[in-house]
Amino acid sequence: MNSLKNFVTVSTIIVISTLSPAAAQEPPRFVATFHSLGVYWSPLQGSADVKCGVNYREMNSDAWQEAQDLWFDGRALDGRPGEYRGSIVNLKPGTEYKVRLMLDDDFRTEVVARAATWSDRFPIAKTVTLPRASSQTLIIDESGDEFGYVLYTAPEDQGAIIDVQRSQPFCVLIAENTHHVIVRGLVLRNAARHAVRISDHCHDIVIEDCDISAWGDVDSTGYGVNLNAAVSAAFRSNDIERLVIQRNDIHHPFGDANSWGEPRPNPGGDPYHPQGPYGIVLYDTKGNHVIRYNRFYTDDDHYFCDILGAGSNISVRGFPNKDSDIYGNVFERCWDDAIEAEGANENVRIWGNRFDRVYHPIGAIATAVGPFYIWRNITLRNRKLGNVENSDDYGRGSFIKAGGAWQDGVWYGDGRTFVYHNTIVQPEQENGRQYPLGCEGALVAEGRALYNVVSRNNIFTNYRLDSYTFRDNPETPEQCGRNDFDYDLYTGRIKESCPEVRYQQHGIHLDSNEQIVYNPRDPAGPYALSPGSPGHDAGILLPNFNDDFNGAAPDMGAIESRLETHAPGRHGDQTPAAFALPQNYPNPFNASTSIRFRLARAAVVQATVFSADGRFVAAMTKDLPAGYHSMVWDGRDKTGTAAPSGVYLYRLRVGAVFSETKKMVLLR
Fold it and tell me: Model-level pTM?
């Protein structure tokens, strides 16, 4: 059966291998999307001190792959048990997997279960062909089931336009309790409020390949009415779940949002806070949504407020709440958050999106439950004030607006967040202005405390080098040291509020944004790092997120270069302009490490390893052509004995023309 619901919580235990009978009482639970599995497990032995490893494989494969360890949350928040939570990502749609969960406890508890991802082939039980043109609201109240959807679509090889000419609130109304419906290939225009309205208790709804524009209204100020949206769920529709919104063009709302520099009446709120049209509004739904491959765009006179979002932001629900994926979208022109992912963020995953001309690409105040995954997104131009023309003065926002918050005496913000392989681009300034046009800050707590965030392998530039790229603002000593910002390539400053905390101990700090060199000819995309530039082949391994990397190590940033960096003497069609010795990878390392280098011409190369006090340990010599190369030191000395933990020096010598020495750390 090709149904979304079919694969929501498949969790069949195959094997429980343990000396602890109690583990058998706590089978894991899985919640699927097309490319991900949310994993939930509450064994009695679980605790923050007991690691839970994850392996997975396709049912027809014998090769296990490693996923990221699950995170243990012992807070029992909002009635939840203490449990391990996390996600397996980058999976294939419509595929069954075995999943092995392994506790590092005294019993070496191991559980093997099976789960499946959603199929993206929807079975059709009935097709409703719409007229080529209509000025009346399409009311959808007929449901399908898991064996077949009801499809509403245009005549074959023709279009279907629903233009209600601002005389009706909706172009499409999906009635309460409707389910297993597909709305495909429609042109929706001029709804006075929302182009598509989804009533409560709806589920398994697909909206795809539509063109949606000119929705919403304006108020007495001339600005757009707040929260009018192209796709909107009824306010606090707590029982809406499994919406798939994909491959749509959602553009040019009827009204315009005000920017942070353009006040308008806002009873009970900040008059400077943007208000106006949205792309998608889902307020406190049940979650398990997928929003993918859509284009959200407009012009300078019809800005969005937020593009995705709504609320309740400081809560254990919010948008998109839980078990949801947002990926492959393009977001352009909003005065606040392009994605307002705030609330629970319980196994919420945001990846592969592109942002341009927005204030905050991602709003994350707060992440109350977690874990929340943000990876491989790219953000370009950034702007706060619409009433200022000078780009040096119109302000910027941070890539991720983050931090916890208090609500009715309860603190929300302890959920774990993982931020991997994102890129902040700094486009060239206009008209001779001083500063580039990208973000100010990467992970910034705006008047709040930010903690429980892990960052790795990001390119985090700052448009002002004297501004903070990382700012956590802990409120109490107990909040110190809860973040783990490290192994990133960054410019700008770090606000380290606690004396004992040192972020980015293994990061690469650059003195200018110009030191980051992208290769526009790379087949992976224009923001792949150029060979030999900082961050190229310099990331650390993140299982399930970058273990398909090319070259000696993962590249930092959102795009992994596709050039053949691993082949001796080749790096695409490029030859290095100079000899160079980048840092070894990994470093620190256990057992073995790769010593990488670049040769401007063919040469005999010798790599020599010394102890910290200068004693000879090992040497490798090769005759190599020009290009990008590496030699692997296996952590053994000249006799084949494993070298002890410690600091070592490695020296690369190329005849009489080049010699350089660097440090590395071996940890047994």
Answer: 0.85
